[in-house]
Specification:
The longest helix is centred in the last third of the chain and has 22 residues, at 253-274. With 293 residues, the chain is an alpha+beta fold. Helix 6 crosses helix 9. The chain folds into two domains: 9-94, Phosphorylase Kinase, domain 1, CATH 3.30.200; 99-291, Aminoglycoside phosphotransferase (APH), C-terminal lobe (Aminoglycoside 3'-phosphotransferase, Chain: A, domain 2). Strand 1 and strand 2 form a beta hairpin. The chain has helices spanning 9-19, 54-71, 103-107, 111-129, 133-140, 149-160, 166-183, 235-244, 253-274, 280-291; strands at residues 28-31, 37-42, 46-51, 81-84, 91-94, 99-100, 190-192, 201-204, 209-212, 219-221. Helices cover 46% and strands 14% of the residues.
């Protein structure tokens, strides 16, 4: 099991035992590589998520309710919380079997395997992006996405300007300008997962099924945002998913997805200095890949 200095894993296990005394386990894994939750996995079967900020603690109850609603509609596998603390401070679900669909795992897949994944993701996005927005806001309190360029500018000035070359920082400023432009462009607003990344896509090679986890950043926003990090696999894969997708489309859809990825790269580079959840080298690799699209 992994160790994280300063985190009392025994306290988290104690909370699980107190709330759910019927649960027994032989081993556990503690994960703290996420940006907004700590996770305890029991016997590779149950995943318990503990929000590590007031913001994510406030919305956990709504996330659980939304996932129950979506569970009856989508065909892919998503978390279905069975164990919910009485104060909604943490919750657990049956672990979705499979492995993270990393870029390296994706690279080993056959053309048929990639097509299978593209079809499942396109179906998932189609359902998600065509749900009634008013119902999502009123019933599940899904928030509208906030403009990002001011936060991006502040983070960049604090953490990137002192650490990048003049030429590199000029590219960052260009991304911020692009982000500002699309933040105020009139686009469809739909329910989005808002954090579709390789670490949140689960691929089960045995039954060829796809799962998607971590809906904590769901919001009402640009549907192109959910295609963003699929570019880390390949532009051809994004186009394959897009061709199968039956949600709202427009001529600038995929161009906005590329801009969103460049923004993600800037955000990750800044946070490599702020919270060390990702290495600067990895964040810079993603940024450079996005800029080259």
């Amino acid at each position: 099991m992994s160790e994280q200095k300063g985190t009392d894993q025994k306290t988290l296990l104690g909370q699980i035992h107190k709330e759910f005394p019927e649960l027994k386990w032989e081993r556990y894994n503690y994960l703290n590589n996420g940006w907004d939750h700590e996770v305890i996995i029991l016997d590779d079967k149950l995943a318990f998520r503990f929000p590590n900020s007031p913001e994510y603690l406030r919305v956990l109850e709504d996330e659980i309710a939304l996932l129950h609603f979506l569970g009856a509609k989508v065909k892919i596998k998503i978390p279905q919380y069975k164990y919910v603390a009485s104060d909604h401070s943490f919750a657990g679900y049956q672990l979705i079997k499979g492995a993270e669909l990393t870029e390296s795992v994706f690279g080993t897949l056959s053309e048929q395997g990639r097509s299978n994944i593209a079809e499942q993701l396109a179906g998932f996005f189609t359902i998600l992006h065509t749900l009634d927005v008013n119902e999502m806001v009123e019933q599940y309190h899904v928030a509208h996405e906030r403009p990002l360029e001011e936060r991006l500018k502040s983070l960049s000035e604090e953490f990137l300007k002192p650490n990048l070359s003049v030429e590199e920082y000029r590219k960052v400023e260009g991304v911020i300008a692009e982000t500002e432009q699309i933040d105020y462009t009139k686009v469809p607003h739909v329910l989005t997962h808002s954090d579709i990344s390789p670490k949140h896509i689960i691929w089960n090679s045995e039954d060829k099924s796809v799962g998607v986890i971590d809906f904590s950043d769901r919001c009402i926003g640009d549907p192109a945002g959910d295609f963003t990090e699929l570019y880390l696999y390949s532009p051809e894969f994004v186009e394959q998913v897009y061709d199968l997708y039956r949600g709202p489309k427009d001529p600038e859809f995929l161009n906005r997805a590329k801009i969103h990825l460049r923004r993600v790269g800037v955000h990750m580079m800044a946070h490599s200095f702020k919270n060390q959840k990702i290495s600067f080298e990895e964040a810079k690799r993603i940024f450079d890949k996005a800029v080259a699209l």
